[in-house]
Amino acid sequence: MISATTKIYGIVGRPLGHSLSPLLQNSLARATDTDMIYVAFHVSENIETAINGAFELGISGFNVTVPFKTDMLKLIEKIEKKAKKIGAVNTLVRGETGYIGYNTDITGLEMSLGNNGMSVKNKNVILLGAGGAAKSALCLAIENQAKTVTVINRNIKKAEKLKEEFSRIYTAIEVLSLDAVKKNIGLLKYDDYFVFQTTSVGMYPNVNDCIIENSKFYKKCDAGIDLIYTPFETVFIKNMQDQGRKCINGLDMLILQGVASFELWNGIKVNREIIENIKKMLLKDLREKMK
Ligand code: ATR
Fold first, then answer.
1. 253 within ligand 1 shell (Cβ under 6 A)
2. Which of 104, 142, 191, 235 sits at a 20 to 30 Å CA gap from 50?
3. Which ligand 1 atom is at minimum distance from the Cα of 128?
4. Is 29 in contact with 38 (CB distance < 8 Å)?
5. What is the residue-wise DSSP string for the chain?
6. Atom 8 (ligand 1) nearest CA
7. Which of 105, 200, 207 for mutating ligand 1's site (highest number of atoms within 8 Å of CB)?
């Protein structure tokens, strides 16, 4: 029951029509008997005004999504170490005089790999894409001592910028253009890559698209994750499976980053059974939406 003491949380971003976060967070609240509600705040223009106003209104916390994950750094009072390193926040926790920024994307990604028996330790890693999601994957690869990281992107300048940003703490990064790799798979030196598919290629409604079609590419991979979860099985995942490679989708990551935010806000640990039940419900919701 909503009362005068119910805490209010939300997601800020644009567009939010398809966001699963409200369903996820309100289900977590119900399952753990937490007195909170969570809503979608579509911010069409001025995020600074929105955040300052939200603090004055007593809103307890936020998830932050596209396009505000980086801009938010300038608007908050404090940034947790990991979020600072990535240069992006996806969670705000209310402090005394302002919001404190965290990044649970990496936590979600790391847990999702761990739960599926995957690890990048001592592995040669490929990042397909060089945007915000690729940055989280790169941080995870560095933190978990990947042997090498090869960033493959359509726009090579963007990949070079990513390499440059992390060059102080990690030197085993190589950058390749997507076109060059498509023309010559031999540019890839190893045969056991762990691959992060971080681009939006293959996402609903363009479900027949795939970032790279050549089967030789998939033979060079050992396992991987496609961060897309609509559809659950992208052409990329199917191509990996056709070569006998294990490849998971991004749904666990989405759920686990949300759980990590919920735990930060409420200071509680959500048990596995609740997470599994919520996953079933989200799967049902997604299946309905994709009909
Ligand atoms: P996110 O924060 O989800 O990573 P983003 O920052 O917009 O989103 O990054 C999207 C990534 O998908 C980029 O690497 C983009 O490549 P470019 O940097 O060359 O734009 C990649 N991407 C999107 N559409 C693509 C397409 N049709 N072909 C190849 N790469 C694509």
1. no
2. 104
3. 14
4. yes
5. ---TT-EEEEEEES--TT--HHHHHHHHHHHTT--EEEEEEE--S-HHHHHHHHHHTT--EEEE-TT-TTGGGGGSSEE-HHHHHHT--SEEEE-SSSEEEE--HHHHHHHHHHHTT---TT-EEEEE--SHHHHHHHHHHHHTT-SEEEEEESSHHHHHHHHHHHTTT---EEEEEHHHHHH-GGG---S-EEEEE-S-TT-TT-TT--S---HHHHHTEEEEEE---SSSS-HHHHHHHHTT-EEE-SHHHHHHHHHHHHHHHH-----HHHHHHHHHHHHHHHHHHT-
6. 131
7. 200
Tokens linked to 115: 């739960």
Residue 279 has pLDDT above 80, yes or no: yes
pLDDT number for residue 288: 87
Q: 190, 183, 187, 159: which is closest to 173 by C-alpha?
A: 159
